[in-house]
Amino acid sequence: MAVYTDINEVDLKAFLAQYETGDLLSFKGIAEGVENSNFLLHTTKGALILTLYEKRVEKTDLPFFLGLMHHLADRGLNCPLPLPRRDGALLGELSGRPAALISFLEGMWLRKPEANHCGAVGRALAEMHLKAEGFALARPNALSVPGWQALWAKAKDRADEVQPGLSEEISGELELLARSWPESLPAGVIHADLFPDNVFFIGDALSGLIDFYFACNDFLAYDLAISLNAWCFEKDGSYNLTKGKAMIEGYVAVRPLSDEELAALPLLARGAALRFFLTRLYDWLTTPAGALVVKKDPLEYLRKLRFHAKAQSAADYGLFV
Amino acid sequence: MAVYTDINEVDLKAFLAQYETGDLLSFKGIAEGVENSNFLLHTTKGALILTLYEKRVEKTDLPFFLGLMHHLADRGLNCPLPLPRRDGALLGELSGRPAALISFLEGMWLRKPEANHCGAVGRALAEMHLKAEGFALARPNALSVPGWQALWAKAKDRADEVQPGLSEEISGELELLARSWPESLPAGVIHADLFPDNVFFIGDALSGLIDFYFACNDFLAYDLAISLNAWCFEKDGSYNLTKGKAMIEGYVAVRPLSDEELAALPLLARGAALRFFLTRLYDWLTTPAGALVVKKDPLEYLRKLRFHAKAQSAADYGLFV
């Protein structure tokens, strides 16, 4: 949860004057998102989200993120739509931060998703992949193999503080993944962070995807591997085959996976687990004790990593079972 | 800012089934209130606030707070209205916490209030005092002289850590205030915490008062003294006579102050400054470094206390100037 930057009514009024919105009725800082400050605005024309981009987001990446949301929403994907200012720009400035005004998407993220929800997420992810085709901008994935190696170089020496033996185990994983990571698979724009808090439902119906601030170009099946990690493990660390099967079948119903993609699934899932393990480990080691952010346990992803290391094929994830 | 307790969609659905609300469309934890967890809900019938009462609020006080809001809203004060459940109760339970569903009040609190806003606050405070008449319940002010003494007993030994000499100065203040605190002045239900974040405006028009969780029975003019402290000092520590004059004149336009109340104003303001100094000092000394709460500087209220100690009459606050 986070509101890093407060805003005042004088600056907000001047900011909103650049847009065609209704009159402002209220704004509340909301406890969602860990990278940016978000406010929920009520206006006489409806609800909006105001996002202030904090320093963890590269300003040069914002045209990619905002342009992608615009591209996807234009093609009918349910996702937040950045509103243009009167001068056409999607990005403004408020309280010294780059800031955007974005349509408010009704729906809530599920703390307790079931298999049917995982199926809906698989379908929506595949739809996003198809609808992203033709988007003019590109953004390399800074958190693929070279990014993992850079993070590990900064965290390795202190990894055994978190759990003895971690340094050796992760070094081995990273070597194996660097050696065997696929060179070519169907690629495109991926969401790269489709965790439960980024998918909204109204009742049991998926109402939209949010938070495209990790989106980038990479293998499409890697995005599915990230989502399997994020949705299909239980709190006790066990993989839920029913949820995994639902998610993969939901995905392939919209965008079939090639034999190469299916064969690569265990390796992609292993890499995805390592990616979240590494960023969590780095944050764990570097976030000061007094920070307003709840630190996420890196060891959750170590357990997932070990599951993937033992998996043989897509069947271990629920497909064709 | 605070969301101390998260809620899940399963428990929330069961909670809402006890009320006559529309269908739930979304809920967001909001970064307002330091005592409780607050969520902004959108339903097909409009917006609502869901409050989970955390342990700093005494559960036995909740009927007073919720009943007061109901009483005031019934009499036409713009304030949040607790919704009754189907069984008539104003209070339920969610995620192991006492919880209430409350009407959403549009408006925003001013980070940069001007004198005209202070005038509106004075009028609204007096209206609240008049409309609270006849409310059946009572709640003694736990933060009057005996409460200050109890807080000071717990903080005194460490006060000089915050600023050398503080222990002696505050002990003297407390003795003087205990000796000279008024024995009888017009009394009733006071808000007791009418800071800028508890007053909403739409444009320049006051749209309502919120957060009655410090409300109690005490001298009415003491409530005005609290608000003068909260609204009429500038960031540099100076008292703004124009704002003070506007607030007092706004108040007396609705509820005239007696000669005794006017004469007591410097002393009441001094006590109010000491009250906020002491709770801030106590929080400063006891809040752990890693807590999700921003600690407020007690010395801001030491400076205000010194201003009041020098004041001679209501004229020093802007009245009859």
What do you see in this structure?
Chains A, B: This is Homoserine kinase. The first copy, chain A, is of the alpha+beta class and 321 residues long. Chain A folds into 2 domains: 95 residues, Phosphorylase Kinase, domain 1; 203 residues, Alpha-Beta Complex (Aminoglycoside 3'-phosphotransferase, Chain: A, domain 2), CATH 3.90.1200.10. Helix content of chain A is 43%, strand content 15%. In chain A, strand 2 and strand 3 form a beta hairpin. In chain A, helix 3 packs antiparallel against helix 6, helix 4 runs antiparallel to helix 5 and helix 4 crosses helix 8. The longest helix of chain A has 28 residues. Chain A is globular and about 55 Å long. Chain A starts with 8 loop residues before the first helix and ends in an 11-residue tail after the last helix. At the A-B interface, strand 1 and strand 7 of A face strand 1 and strand 7 of B.
Number of strands of chain A: 9
Find the structural class of chain A using helix and strand composition: alpha+beta
Mean pLDDT of chain A: 94
Quaternary organisation: homodimer
